[in-house]
């Protein structure tokens, strides 16, 4: 952070030293002369740096309240330190245990069902020979990605409602009992998974479709000459070809394992189904902004942030070690 | 000779010429059927919603509305379009999308340009400083308290100020800039142009596709965002449309709880809900052709080089 802000004063204070005169000058002095020479280039960075310092790094300092009994009137500095008290509460609270379980269950269901789906669908799209049909399908299935969770939530509330929802209408016409999807603890998670799949599956195929185009077509030609059928080509060329992308997407997904879909759930859940759908994100929102339990909910948020951060770092390190590929 | 020609024609046509085996034919039939069904699953909810928005409330509640309106009426649309809260939230959303996109695109591009220059000293550390914010954040509550300290709660700027830089989009733009030939910059330098001048009159005109892509990314994100508004905005006059809609849905799902207890009382104006949702979807549908074109490109740029 310091690297960019302080030297500007330094450069203003000392007149420009000739860049070639002294090769062994320190980093700061070289930085100073660079800024002096190309002040306009460094100036362009100022708005962006100010925005992230203020809106991203200042809240990181605010994390300290997870270790304090934050009182809005006393402020950050004067609220008393309480050490690990809020974390102790977190690990013993049955509420949090439930919330953590929900987060992990919903997330794992989403990963198990919704992670492979776009790969399979991309492979199937790749087999379509009629280009007009293929493009039409793509146009249609990308669409839900661009709608907000409010809209998608509204669509599903409407489709699945017990008075007038088309799904229940079908169920009744098949002589089955109507299901109150949004009020039934045994089906609500399936509603979450299904709607997430409906919204994002189509769009998620893009990455894999792009990966297909990077496979050398000669490989297919050679395989055909060797008599490999469509299945063998798929198994021995296409899948290995997109494996790096699959692994990359999986690491990225893993880092989000504790983000079970807060924006989605906030739109779709209600008190009746809290016990199966209250996740870390929604819990922090309700405890923090609803109950104004600032310190405790910051502790919960920090718990999530630290685990997610660790997962991405570890996932990336493993991928670099065993697969020689990583995000960075 | 024939084979050679086929190879030249490319993969897809060559395969079309080759006779399909029985199992391949079966697969093709399955595949086309699958995608027709998938397409329908995506579209039918909208058709149902359109039908509901145009049907009489009685027909909606009794579950008689499928894919066609029953008891055709347009009053719900008139009702929604005359509702001052809806109109005001629409105005807020349009304003937020325009102002937010302009500010975010500007700040994000300005940051991306210097970071695309290898000669920038401290480039690695600066990049790390930006990327770190993607991996770790202070969290909801510290951010909220910051906004409170800055007196930004219940103001319009809180909806776009923190979003003025998006690191992911910044990296895409940076990668694009890195792909432009250095000779452009060098020749402009010989003509005596400064860095800002070079960015504005040499680099930007060549970067219109990526600008369009990222601009659309921002616009869709601002148009669709309800979360920031839900946290920071309680003043009804400042609520954007997504938040207005969310509250409409939640209040109705509250009713929907009540309905279950006492099915006789029905206060949920489902047709009004349906028409509000549709009206909020129309702007996205209008820009969708551009969205699709540029978003796919954007994702490709991001995935190839990012």
TrEMBL record, chain B:
Keyword DNA repair applies: no
Gene Ontology annotations of biological process type: transmembrane transport
Compartment list: Cell membrane
Family membership: Belongs to the binding-protein-dependent transport system permease family.
Topology relative to the membrane: Multi-pass membrane protein
Positions of the ABC transmembrane type-1 domain: 90-290
Top-rank taxon: Bacteria
Protein's recorded name: ABC transporter permease subunit
Keywords from the UniProt entry: Cell membrane, Membrane, Transmembrane, Transmembrane helix, Transport
Protein's UniProt keywords contain Transcription: no
GO CC, one annotated term: plasma membrane
